[in-house]
């Protein structure tokens, strides 16, 4: 699939005056309306950047497959726009990158696995259907930590994805391919899945906005699973507004994922229109000091978080510093994915049908093709015969409820609108590490509460990181508070202007 795009001569680059690297959905639509830009031109420019930077130049290895019909689909979207722009959907002509565990009927869905490289689902994931209906163009599918198990973004099919801000570091994970690609301007927005912190980790590491939604807001049907209770799907974007626009399309009831019934009537009419530049004025936000380290290795992240506090206070927010006794001990005993993985994966394979290269979790593990740390993890999951009846699993389910009550009650006592903390206590780890250490994403995945990660700032510049390494701050709130959290992130973004494009993927000559 990749060779069809990467080995042919690329079309001429975009010639109209337009800055692709930091383009937004609203900006693209304004350019469409003015006639300064077409979808074909935009897609050509994206493909040129992919050609220049994904396997060449910095060789980010962010993508696993590029849509060979992208220009054909772009031409169709242009024709529809010319016929009647009033009928265009909210994502009309917007190139999107999907993490390669979202089912697509026209491209393989591999999970980054050599064993799954020929897997072709019969239907799109529910969220992919909604993206297409909204006019989005599926441009490519991204590399990831194999089967979304971990935070390094390395796979047997795609190798190690690199962080465009520091090519010696990982891009976070597991949705690191999407993160690196959006940061590098390969497309405008992308999707991720989040069992532990897999949307928010690459958002933090790549100076992006990532949303892990409330359990029940976004369907997980057609997304290769890890867990029955922890998995979520959500947007990754360069701005809070674009993340909101993507969430507007992704959210909705899906009979194939009955938990989405919990979200019916709970979302605002439009997340994007609910954003306010003055949203922080009067907000009460708790800085959760439990999740800020106190060793020398934590100093770069702590410095950024203090800067976040100053900006928020300057925008009229009240920052309350707090600690929650027993939080970390309880949070260490809420993850359920190990006990649920086998059942979740077998249900996914059953939905794919019999004409697939792999038809069961046992068969997948037996291929022995995964990168070593993932292979060992899956073997351990397979060894759990009846995970859903295991006493340890049942205790962890109870702990999840305890964690929800603990956080909600503390927020109520202090009259807090949201909790604030760094997504990762240290800078994103270098390539060659096998774990993404000291991440704080458990509060969201362990409770089902929504979280929004946004660019908080950068560490000090170095030779390998000329802008510094991005540091993401995270806001967490009660169920279905995405509109509030996105509005806070948007207000911070408008005040602080922390977003910077990486130096390793500069504008192309003539673009």
TrEMBL record:
Domain (Amidase): residue spans on this chain: 41-486
Domain of life: Bacteria
Stretches assigned to coiled coil: none
InterPro entries in the record: Amidase_CS (IPR020556), Amidase_dom (IPR023631), AS_sf (IPR036928)
Name of the featured protein: Amidase
Organism: Ramlibacter alkalitolerans
């Amino acid at each position: 699939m990749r060779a069809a795009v990467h080995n042919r001569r690329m079309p001429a680059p975009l010639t109209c005056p337009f800055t692709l690297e930091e383009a937004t959905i609203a900006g693209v639509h304004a350019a469409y309306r003015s006639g300064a830009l077409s979808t074909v031109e935009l897609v050509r420019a994206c493909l040129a950047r992919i050609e220049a930077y994904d396997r060449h130049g910095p060789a980010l290895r962010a993508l696993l497959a590029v849509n060979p019909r992208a220009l054909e689909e772009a031409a169709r979207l242009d024709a529809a726009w010319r016929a009647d722009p009033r009928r265009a959907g909210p994502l009309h002509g917007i190139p999107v990158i999907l993490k390669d565990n979202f089912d697509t009927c026209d491209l393989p869905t591999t999970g980054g696995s050599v064993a799954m490289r020929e897997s072709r689902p019969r239907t799109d994931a529910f969220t992919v259907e909604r993206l297409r209906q909204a006019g989005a163009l599926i441009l490519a599918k991204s590399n990831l930590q194999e089967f979304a198990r971990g935070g390094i973004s390395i796979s047997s099919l795609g190798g190690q994805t690199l962080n465009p801000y520091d090519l010696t570091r990982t891009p976070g994970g597991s949705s690191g391919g999407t993160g690196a690609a959006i940061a590098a301007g390969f497309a405008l927005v992308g999707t991720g899945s989040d069992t532990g912190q897999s949307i928010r980790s690459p958002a933090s590491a790549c100076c992006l906005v990532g949303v892990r939604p409330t359990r029940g807001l976004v369907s997980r049907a057609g997304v290769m699973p890890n867990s029955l209770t922890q998995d979520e799907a959500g947007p990754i974007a360069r701005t809070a507004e674009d993340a909101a626009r993507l969430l507007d399309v992704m959210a909705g009831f899906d009979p194939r994922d009955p938990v989405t019934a919990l979200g019916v009537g709970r979302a605002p009419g439009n997340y994007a229109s609910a954003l306010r530049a003055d949203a922080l004025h009067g907000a009460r936000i708790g800085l959760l000091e439990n999740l800020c380290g106190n060793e020398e290795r934590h100093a770069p992240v702590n410095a950024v978080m203090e800067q976040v506090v100053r900006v928020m206070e300057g925008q009229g927010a009240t920052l309350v510093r707090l600690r929650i006794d027993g939080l970390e001990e309880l949070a260490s005993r809420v993850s359920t994915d190990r006990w649920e993985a086998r059942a979740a994966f077998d249900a996914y394979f059953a939905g794919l049908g019999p004409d697939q290269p792999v038809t069961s979790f046992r068969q997948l593990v037996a291929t022995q093709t995964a990168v070593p740390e993932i292979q060992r993890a899956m073997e351990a999951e397979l060894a759990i015969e009846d995970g859903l009846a295991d006493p340890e699993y049942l205790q962890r389910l109870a702990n999840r409820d305890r964690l929800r009550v603990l956080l909600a009650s503390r927020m109520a006592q202090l009259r807090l609108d949201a909790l604030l903390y760094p997504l990762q206590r240290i800078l994103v780890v270098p390539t060659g590490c096998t774990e993404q250490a000291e991440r704080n994403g458990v509060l969201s995945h362990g409770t089902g509460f929504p979280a929004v990660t946004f660019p908080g700032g950068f560490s000090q510049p170095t030779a390998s990181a000329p802008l510094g390494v991005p540091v993401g701050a995270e806001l967490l709130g009660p169920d279905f508070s995405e509109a509030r959290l996105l509005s806070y992130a948007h207000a911070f973004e408008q005040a602080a202007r922390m977003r910077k494009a990486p130096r390793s993927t500069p504008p192309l000559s003539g673009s």
